[in-house]
Amino acid sequence: MTDSVATLTPVPASEAPAPAPIAEDLTVMVVDDEPSNLASLRKIFERDQMRVFTAENAKSALDVVRRHRVQVVLTDLMMPGTSGVDLLKALKELSPDTEVVLMTAYGTVETAVQAMREGAYDFVEKPLKRMQIVKTVRKAAERFSLVAENRSLRKEIELLTTREIVGQSGALRRVLEIATQAAPSMATVLVLGESGTGKELIARYIHSKSQRATGPFVAVNCAAIPESILEAELFGHERGAFTGAVGKREGRFARARGGTLFLDEIGELTPQVQVKILRVLQEGEYEPVGGEMVRADVRIVAATNRDLAAEVEAGRFREDLYYRLNVIA
């Protein structure tokens, strides 16, 4: 179908271990050709109550994944024989649910985007900071859990077409049934479809069945707000932040606190606003115009009638934001 609930749901591979929610002893594997690095990272993760495997090369790492369910792999990018990106590709074929974080002393934005294109969860630079790497691995494990919970939803919903949603009540009921299954998850949802195909209906339904149902549902049509005020409309502004800002004003993110924010026509966002949305998805925080960082307490449901992959190719939409929204390409 054209209208689809795109949650964190990769298609399973025949060799992949059976999925399961995060266990109390989160399982991480560290891959590095330096034994001293392996020992240091093992101590860090074990201190944080994680189950840890280590491997000095790609072959050993793949052997571990064949025998054990590994939620997160933290691998060095530059290793003799097989690079971290090559290992990433092999891991995604063997165990699509396993999240991969790359670490390197040679990081560039281009390398990070390439790694995310191949399926990496994140990219960290050496020297590693203990709190940062633990936080990143735990967030990757949360993603693993969401993938496991919602594995079948995208595959099922894509069997429906836009015409079926618009013209057949039975098909619409099926969409809503699947949306009901997706609703309890905190995953970002991307709804694709032409105007008038019920994208906001699906977003409202997901909200009504979610753990945030008692909170607000705030809808924003990004195409209907002038570029000059869109940033302030979404994130709010402080008094004096710009000409005409005579007082402090809450934005849509603040109004949706504790609930769901529906960003309709997200493909219309300016590059500057795209950066801010990306920060919300990555760090869970945003910055009002003229203000300081604020924690974001919203679930985002986004929608567009554009082909975002084509927009990325044309340079009109950020590639890293696209992969954060549409986790499974």
Walk me through the structure.
With 329 residues, the protein is of the alpha/beta class. The chain folds into 2 domains: 27-147, Rossmann fold, CATH 3.40.50; 188-325, Rossmann fold (3-Layer(aba) Sandwich), CATH 3.40.50.300. Helices cover 43% and strands 16% of the residues. The protein has 13 helices and 12 strands. It has helices at residues 35-47, 58-67, 84-94, 109-117, 130-157, 162-167, 169-182, 199-208, 227-235, 252-255, 271-283, 308-313, 319-325; strands at 5-6, 27-31, 51-55, 72-76, 99-104, 122-125, 189-192, 217-221, 260-264, 285-286, 294-295, 299-304. It has a 5-stranded mixed beta sheet with strand order 1-7-12-9-8. Strands 3-2-4-5-6 form a 5-stranded parallel beta sheet, with helices on both faces. A two-stranded antiparallel ribbon has the order 10-11. It is globular. The relative contact order is 0.13.
